[in-house]
Fold this sequence. Notes:
The complex is a heterodimer of chains A (248) and B (310).
Chain A: H1 5-15, E1 22-24, H2 29-39, E2 46-49, E3 53-55, H3 69-72, E4 77-78, H4 81-90, E5 95-99, E6 102-103, E7 109-110, E8 113-115, E9 121-123, H5 130-136, E10 139-144, E11 177-182, E12 185-189, E13 195-200, H6 206-211, E14 218-225, H7 231-240
Parallel strand pairs in A: 1-2, 1-5, 5-10, 10-11, 13-14
Antiparallel strand pairs in A: 2-3, 3-4, 6-7, 8-9, 11-12, 12-13
Chain B: H1 6-9, H2 13-20, E1 26-28, H3 39-47, E2 53-57, H4 63-69, E3 73-78, H5 90-98, E4 105-108, H6 111-123, E5 127-130, H7 138-141, E6 145-149, E7 156-161, E8 167-175, E9 181-182, H8 190-196, E10 199-207, H9 210-214, E11 220-222, E12 229-232, H10 250-259, H11 263-275, H12 280-287, H13 289-295
Parallel strand pairs in B: 1-2, 1-8, 2-3, 3-4, 8-10, 10-12
Antiparallel strand pairs in B: 5-7, 6-7, 8-9, 9-11
Amino acid sequence: MDYTLSELMVATAAREIHDGDVVFVGMxxxxxxxxxxxxxHAPQAVGVFENGVLRSTPARELLFTMSDGPNIxxxxxxxxxxxxxxxxxxxxxSLGFLGAAEVDRHGNLNSTEVxxxxxxxxxxxxxxxxxxxxxxxxxxxxxxxxxxxxxxxxVHYITSPGYGPWRDSGRLKEGGPAAVITTKAVLRFSPxxxxxxxxxxxxxxxxxxxxxxxxxxxxxxxxxxxxxPTKQELRVIRNYDPKGFWTK
Amino acid sequence: xxxxxQTEKLCSLEEAISRFxxxxxxxxxxxxxxxxxxxxxxxxxxxxxxRDLTLIGPISDILFDQIIGAGCAKKVVAAWVGNVMxxxxxxxxxxxxxxIPRCLEIADxxxxxxxxxxxxxxxxxxxxxxxxxxxxxxxxxxxxxxxxEAPFTGEKMGAVRAISPDVTIVQAQRAxxxxxxxxxxxxxxxxxxxxAAKHVIVVAEEIVEPKVIASDPNRTVIPGFLVSAIAEVPFxxxxxxxxxxxxRDNECYREYHKATxxxxxxxxxxxxxxxGVKDRKEFLQRLGEDRVNSxxxxxxxxxxxxxxxx
Lengths: 248, 310
């Protein structure tokens, strides 16, 4: 492979962004996915950052956080957090990205606390804006390190809601997870809100993905290999993150 | 409220913390997410060995971790506590998981609910409704969140209880001696947190003449009559960035992550950078002139002038 796993995940995440989307960008790899999408297939996408920044052009330098200087210089608008969250609650955000420590069968995410192998509770940083993005964006995409213990049948704490009775009616009916991009695969969701294998990354197999998932994972009859990053996508990623801080 | 004179408001950071952050109060800080985090103020809180504080803020990016590690906090009201660039915050984990250096209570919020809680207090109402957090476990653990049936529509919604911090510490680019403060860039929850608080401490990169502030009233995010104390502290937000003044010191977050994995290592770090240092000036000397200079704005990007004439 002449690309890294993180580069594959960034390119895959970038393809979730449609041209004209209003995207709640989030942190880490999605910061770069937004840059890739803007520079390739989605030049009209607008980025919303929960610190209060709106951007119609990608930042000119690599960001380590959304509040770094280059994300403010040349911004479309600098607002308060509440004003950005208001866009989300109104239903004006078409796509949101978030990370998690655990994702379950119905796309519920836990980033608050997990148990280690000895059963001891491990405290994680918490929701940040993840719960808001999951609850209120029209579609959301989660990124995950694919390990069996990170994909339990049911998370014991829902930091960020996936599918469940809360999606049957009311405001939350409008949203839900569209995809989980892991280090092994891309999962998508049935109309009943259950995750299935959509594609497996080059170098892995369907069997490997299923064996490393904590419930009997449905496999789409059309499951195929995840499309590798294109030359153009790789060029944007490497130009933006030349030292590979996020994408090594 | 008695009118405060100009001289009473402009003071050293040491005095501001000493007067307005007594033991046991709730303190909102780090309200602009990853930028303009008042680290100098946090370090002064640690040096003055404040106890039993309740820390309020959306994500705080290692500031809360340092205050927790120093044993100054009994409770955290936050959406996220960690190191944005590196991941976990070890003092926070030690406190929650093992009660080291002391037990820590946490009220888990989301960024939206904490912004709403501060906005409610800033509006002077006891709660605000929202759709966020529906379907999540947050309601079961945070007494400041409740489900209720909305009037008019009858739908089930979340209610977020107002939070009025005893004191809010806000970092500003510039302010006058009356506490009127200009802030630009992402604002996070700063404007609401200032309005929601009983006292506001402004930490400014520079103190300017009142006419500078008055020349651009749209940029006056904090009106001085809300402010109890104002301190001039250049590089007061380091290692977080202040737009137009300095960039983020990424190396510092990396070093902190490496240097705080064990309690013992953290104690060394705390002595080297906080308790063994007199003030921010000495902190910057320890950081070294080259490193400080390397963080300064490399290319200015001035806004166009706006005509406030009539």
